[in-house]
């Protein structure tokens, strides 16, 4: 895969290993070590509102919003970078079936 900007991935449609359209790229998970950043995977889903408010990782929402934001994130899935097959065109193709994807990047055991 050639170089790209993260902004080129956000909002791009995603197709799983069975050819089914499963949502869009909502976020990119990156590990930073010194001056080097490594892409770990992509967060897929339908909406990114909860993530855009900062409630996508370690930040817990205030109690009144916990259920609402959890409901908004119910379709989120994580795909490890090694399972991304293609970034060509307007879609991201992954080599695994949607049903096998974990709901959160911390649940991935790769």
Quick summary:
The protein contains 3 helices and 6 strands. The chain is of the alpha+beta class and 110 residues long.
Give your account of this protein's structure.
The protein has 110 residues and is an alpha+beta fold. It has one domain: Roll (SH3 type barrels). Helix content is 16%, strand content 34%. The protein has helices spanning 6-9, 49-52, 63-72, and strands at residues 13-15, 21-33, 36-45, 77-80, 84-86, 91-94. A 6-stranded mixed sheet has the order 4-3-2-1-6-5, with no helix packed on it. β1 and β2 (21-33) form a beta hairpin. The mean pLDDT is 77.
Q: Could you list some keywords that capture this structure?
A:
globular; SH3 type barrels; single chain; 110 residues; six-stranded mixed sheet
CATH top level label: Mainly Beta
Q: Got a strand count?
A: 6
Low-confidence stretches: none
Name of the CATH homologous superfamily? PRC-barrel domain
User: How far is it from the N-terminal to the C-terminal residue, by CA?
Assistant: 20 Å
Reported CATH architecture: Roll
Shape: globular
Secondary-structure element order, N to C: HEEEHHEEE
Radius of gyration over C-alpha positions, nearest whole angstrom? 14 Å
Strand content: 25-35%
Strand order of the largest sheet: 4-3-2-1-6-5
The secondary structure category is alpha+beta
What's the layout of helices and strands?
Layout: H1 6-9, E1 13-15, E2 21-33, E3 36-45, H2 49-52, H3 63-72, E4 77-80, E5 84-86, E6 91-94
Parallel strand pairs: 1-6
Antiparallel strand pairs: 1-2, 2-3, 3-4, 5-6
């Amino acid at each position: 895969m050639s170089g790209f900007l993260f902004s080129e991935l956000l909002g791009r449609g995603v197709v799983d290993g069975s050819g089914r359209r499963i949502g869009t790229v909502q976020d990119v998970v990156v590990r930073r070590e010194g001056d080097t950043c490594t892409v770990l995977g992509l967060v897929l889903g339908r909406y990114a509102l909860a993530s855009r408010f900062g409630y996508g990782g370690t930040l817990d929402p205030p109690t009144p919003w916990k259920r609402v934001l959890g409901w908004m994130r119910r379709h989120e899935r994580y795909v490890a970078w090694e399972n991304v097959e293609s970034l060509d065109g307007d879609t991201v193709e992954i080599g695994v079936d949607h049903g096998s994807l974990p709901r959160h990047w911390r649940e991935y055991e790769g």
